[in-house]
Design a protein that fits this description.
single chain; about 425 residues; alpha/beta; Dna Topoisomerase Vi A Subunit, Chain: A, domain 2; 6-stranded mixed sheet; 3-stranded antiparallel sheet; 21 helices; 15 strands; about 55% helix; about 10% strand
């Protein structure tokens, strides 16, 4: 009762409004009432109110710095002596008094309840394990979830539920592929729900990499590979690689379409659809030669066409089709020779192939000596140069350091004749070994 009368006393005088706002902010900051409240440019109404309360002249002052303890003292000897100031402040603002810590705890409790309601609906499923892991460890997609929780809870709930359903439907079998747009339509009735750069699309990628124990993809091709390994295919026609000199098999039988190009010594563009129709691949010499540049590929093939060299062209980037092709072939070859441009992108391709195929991958004509012999005057700019920092292979790290010091790119076209001579020698040796 006394607190209510005290509240009424302060509320009826507008001169105390800013003082109480200061007290509210102190409580919000400290979790209790203490410290100082500073009022700048105090009005005549405030001067009169403060002078009356504290029995001190504020009329000649432009500002006032008030210790919270002085408010208690000011109330001594009045009918409000012994009043609970915190209750008074709370009553002044009709209960709207909460500290930052309390606010944070309340926010975290509401957030935990939000995700708990979602996760319980998927108890015992693959999706449950993913969401449970990231919430407990604040890892994987946790930051993305938190950002979107603050931005739009309803939208997050809708998209997260769709992603959870999608994760539980994935085959995680690259031999059992579903087109992404059709998969998306079956889950959400919208073929674009899991498109790139959408919330649901990004969350789906996070979920997949959790199960595959992969890093988050940094490029469109890496993203396509993540989806592929989960059993989804995004672009099966335009994602292709160019090859020459390979035999393909389906159900243990030679694939007639592929065999026609092999017999005619003709290069062919192989897309993901074509690759999905075969089981495995072989090459007569159990060695293949990969080029980054289509001009080099074409020139080598033109000169060595009659020798049926097994060649692959990546077109300056390692498309998913190239990786799927090599994965189907890897078990049936002894060596995979790679040579590309001496620039960040060329080294990135080499590094990824070396990591994937390990000792089978031969870094061919890819040394400091070859680089120095063909170094151009094309400067590698700063942003591109930073790509070299991510190279993992020890041999390539040394080469990357050298290129960084020199600052220029080197292009493999100038090594074409050396490639031709190398392949001729290798085929000559292998022809007698494999009786080809």
């Amino acid at each position: 009762m006394m607190e209510k009368e005290c509240v009424d006393y302060f509320k009826t005088n507008p001169g105390f409004r800013r003082l109480f706002e200061g007290l509210k902010e102190k409580y919000r900051s400290l979790g209790n009432l203490g410290g100082l409240v500073k009022l700048n440019n105090i009005t005549e109404t405030e001067k009169e109110a403060l002078s009356g309360l504290f029995r001190k002249d504020y009329y000649s002052k432009k500002s006032a710095t008030i210790k919270v303890d002085l408010i208690y003292k000011a109330l001594e000897g009045t009918k409000f002596q012994g009043v609970d100031l915190e209750k008074v402040v709370r009553g002044y603002f009709k209960g709207d008094l909460i500290s930052k810590k309390e606010e944070r705890n309340s926010h975290n409790s509401q957030k935990a309840l939000f995700f708990e309601k979602i996760i319980l609906d998927f108890n015992g499923t693959k999706a449950f394990h993913w969401l449970d892991y990231l919430l407990k460890n604040k890892a994987n997609a946790y930051r993305l979830l938190s950002q979107n929780y603050e931005r739009d809870k309803a939208n997050l709930r809708n998209k997260l539920v769709l992603v959870m359903k999608a994760l539980n439907k994935l085959s995680f079998d690259s031999s059992n592929l579903t087109r992404l747009a059709l998969f998306s339509s079956n889950i959400s009735r919208n073929p674009h729900t899991f498109d790139d750069n959408t919330l649901a699309g990004n969350l789906l990628i996070y979920g997949i990499i959790y199960f595959l124990e992969m890093d988050y993809p940094q490029s469109a091709e890496d993203r396509a590979e993540v989806l592929y390994r989960a059993g989804l295919i995004k672009d099966e026609i335009s994602n292709y690689t160019t090859i020459n000199g390979f035999v393909a098999y389906k159900d243990g039988e030679v694939h007639k379409g592929w065999h026609g190009f092999y017999q005619n010594n003709e290069p062919v563009n192989i897309n993901l659809w074509n690759l999905s129709e075969i089981d495995t691949l072989s090459t007569p010499f159990k060695s293949i030669f990969i080029f980054e540049n289509p001009t080099v590929f074409s020139q080598v093939l033109e000169v060595l066409k009659d020798k049926k060299p097994s060649l692959v062209c990546t077109y300056g980037q390692l498309k998913l089709a190239s990786l799927v092709f090599l994965d189907k072939l890897a078990a049936n070859v002894d060596k995979i020779y790679y040579s590309g441009d001496f620039d960040p992108e060329g080294l990135q391709i080499a590094d990824k192939l070396k990591t994937r195929y390990e000792e089978k991958l031969i870094l061919w004509r890819f040394s400091k000596e070859e680089y120095d012999s063909i170094k151009s005057t094309k400067v590698i700019e700063g942003e591109r140069m930073k790509k070299l920092d991510k190279i993992k292979s020890p041999h390539l790290q040394s080469l990357a350091d050298h290129i960084r010091e020199e600052g220029f790119a080197g292009y493999q076209e100038l090594l074409t004749q050396m490639y031709i001579e190398d392949i001729e020698k290798i085929i000559c040796i292998l022809s007698s070994k494999y009786m080809v």
